[in-house]
Design goal:
607 residues; alpha/beta; Rossmann fold; 3 domains; 5-stranded parallel sheet; 22 helices; 12 strands; globular
């Protein structure tokens, strides 16, 4: 798609708003500082994958073919994992020695990378309780469910997040960022290096900002780069996809190899990475064999969101329709929430709400844990650690996580009847049947005539009894059977993550949230995403005579108008769509509402 612009937009020409337009709202960097720190167009994660250039068009023509393209790119993670094996052989003995001296492993990340390290830390501590692996996410534990604005862009917050650990030279701190551009990581890595810790940085782009390169050029205790570039993601900029999968697999292989060796299991340590490579290849084949079943769930989501009675393009809850709710057992909740949480900024849907945000529209995607009635216990299961701080518990309790917990945004108040979709998620090992709690909770909810599907990750074939538990409640089953195990659960996590990614990506593609393989509905909620909005606008306009600085100011002011409209109960399409339409129709900021009406009349299609 190209929008032709015959002449420069008059956005800056009207004297009535020129002065206010030139002045940036509070909280935004001057363009010169923004360009210096957050011009990320050269990173591999922001490029466009050749296999998916026409992803949205293909998906609208053939959903299963579009899902196949997404899976094609998922399969490239295997080559990335293979390329990590030399790193493992080199650094695992060093990590082992430092841990043996009493050192801790601290994993740090923002956004999807932060959720990945929390998951890895929890898995390692469950399997190897004698060693201490700590996961740190920008914004604290509640950021697993909803990113906290400002933390990911703050070098100071990166430093502050590590101060409580009183780092020592035998500690190991590993930072993770798909693009290698996290300001939070930058501050934390400098702090950890200054404290004398052994610091590594895992990232997926050959091209990184100069500020990140300075970490590797430090005169004292330089940070060690671990760059594994697997190329662009299936949807440009969507690091929740292949990059996050590689972080789970690659860092998981490094950590598990080290911990097996420390526990005198040399054979398992020597072969773990190769086992994971083989397992992920097997998982990809299993998922490909189940694309038809995955497509059925995608179509259910699309039907729910596109229903005229749905709240999908509303700013408030007008009806009780248009929601996808995931019920997950304890061992699936992190994967379920990683997908549900990351869908919001990627596709400009609503984030999971805090308890006091009842006046705002519910999140389109939300996940709850079954089997643990207490909200505190549910959070401890999610984060894989005890919660002792009253301040942290207060922040976490703003989000209802347990399906049994009461509250304004509790599962009991979540619409799951007609016009909504309820998805159950469980992992079945050799001996344990489908979670009784999940079956019972699902059964009660399905009495309300909603749509229901269940996703099962199974080590063996489903028994007739397991199938009947669900068929009895008229629930369709998507079972990924004979998933190989690896001793810690990374293979099953990747299997479930990729299935959930395919479903949410597929439904958002059908809802016109992607153009080709461009994340056209992205939110401008942090500096990295503002940069992406700027580039997406430029790439889809011919002959735009606005300078980059003028376009930056345009995006910033439109973003503020969107916030104001949303607070006043007026739904707005995504920022890139608004700015492109303004440029195409030769409109100005005072024409903001007219542009919104025009986009909604076209169902937000950019033709």
């Amino acid at each position: 798609m190209q929008v032709t612009l015959e002449k420069a937009s008059p956005l800056l020409e009207r004297k009535t708003n020129a002065q206010s337009f030139e002045k940036l709202p509070k909280g935004y960097l001057p363009y010169e500082d923004f360009e210096k720190k957050f011009s990320l167009g050269a990173t591999s994660t922001e490029q466009y994958h050749s296999k998916t250039m026409h992803l949205s068009q293909v998906t609208h023509r053939s959903l299963q073919e579009g899902l196949g393209l997404l899976l094609d790119v998922d399969e490239e993670v295997v080559d990335g994992l293979r390329s990590i094996i030399p790193f493992i052989h080199k650094y695992s003995p060093i990590l082992e020695k430092k841990i043996d001296m009493g050192g801790r492993v601290i994993l740090v990340g923002s956004g999807s990378s932060g959720r990945a390290v929390i998951d890895l830390a929890a898995k390692c501590n469950e399997k190897f309780p004698n060693q201490k692996v700590i996961g740190v996410i920008a914004g604290g534990g509640s950021a697993f469910v909803r990113a906290r604005e400002g933390f990911e862009d703050s070098e100071e917050e990166g430093r502050n997040a590590l101060k409580e650990y009183h780092l020592q030279p035998h500690d190991i701190v590993i930072f993770v960022s798909a693009s290698g551009s996290s300001t939070f990581n930058e501050g934390g890595a400098h702090y950890a290096a200054e404290r004398g810790a052994y610091v590594l940085y895992f990232y997926n782009s050959k091209n990184i900002p100069e500020r990140t390169q300075q970490l590797f050029k430090r005169q004292n205790n330089p940070v060690i780069p671990l760059c594994v570039d697997i190329g662009p993601p299936a949807i440009a900029g969507s690091t929740r996809l292949q990059a996050a999968t590689l972080a789970i697999a690659g860092l998981g292989a490094l950590l598990v190899t080290t911990l097996y060796s420390l526990n005198n299991e040399a054979d398992l340590a020597a072969n773990y990475a190769e086992l994971l490579v083989s397992n992920i290849q097997r998982v990809n084949a299993l998922i490909r064999n189940n694309l038809a079943g995955i497509a059925n769930i995608v179509l259910k989501e699309k039907e729910i969101f596109s229903n005229p009675a749905s709240n999908f393009r509303q700013i408030r809850d007008i009806t009780e329709q248009g929601y996808v709710t995931i019920l997950a057992s304890k061992d699936c909740i992190r994967e379920a929430l990683i997908d549900a949480t990351e869908t919001s900024p990627t596709f400009s849907t609503n984030p999971i709400r805090r308890e006091f945000e009842l006046h705002k529209k519910r999140a389109e995607f939300q996940a709850y844990m079954v089997g643990i009635p207490d909200n505190k216990e549910a959070w401890e299961a999610l984060l894989g650690r005890e919660i002792s701080s009253k301040e942290e518990l207060h922040e976490l309790n703003q989000f209802r996580l347990s399906a049994n917990a009461a509250g304004l945004n509790a599962f009991q108040k979540r619409p799951v009847g007609k016009g909504n979709l309820l998805i159950g998620v469980a992992k079945l090992d050799d001996d344990v049947p489908a979670s009784i709690e999940l079956v019972l909770t699902f059964s009660e909810a399905m009495h309300q005539d909603g749509e229901g599907s269940v996703i099962l990750i199974c080590r063996n074939k489903l028994t007739d009894g397991q199938k009947n538990d669900w068929i009895f409640h008229k629930v369709s089953i998507l079972a990924i059977e004979e998933v190989p195990e690896d001793g810690i659960g990374i293979t099953e996590t990747i299997a479930l993550k990729q299935v959930l990614n395919l479903i949410s990506n597929g439904s958002m593609l059908l809802m016109n949230k992607v153009l080709g393989n461009q994340m056209i509905d992205v939110r401008a909620s942090n500096q990295k995403l503002i940069d992406r909005c700027l580039r997406l606008t430029k790439e889809n306009v011919k002959q735009c005579k606005l300078s980059d600085k003028e376009l930056y100011h345009t995006i910033v002011h439109v973003n503020e108008l969107m916030k104001s409209s949303n607070e006043n109960g007026i739904y707005t399409p995504a920022i890139v769509k608004i700015v492109l339409t303004m440029l195409n129709l030769n409109k100005t900021l005072p024409d903001f509402e007219e542009v919104i009406v025009s986009l909604r009349a076209k169902q937000e299609l950019l033709d």
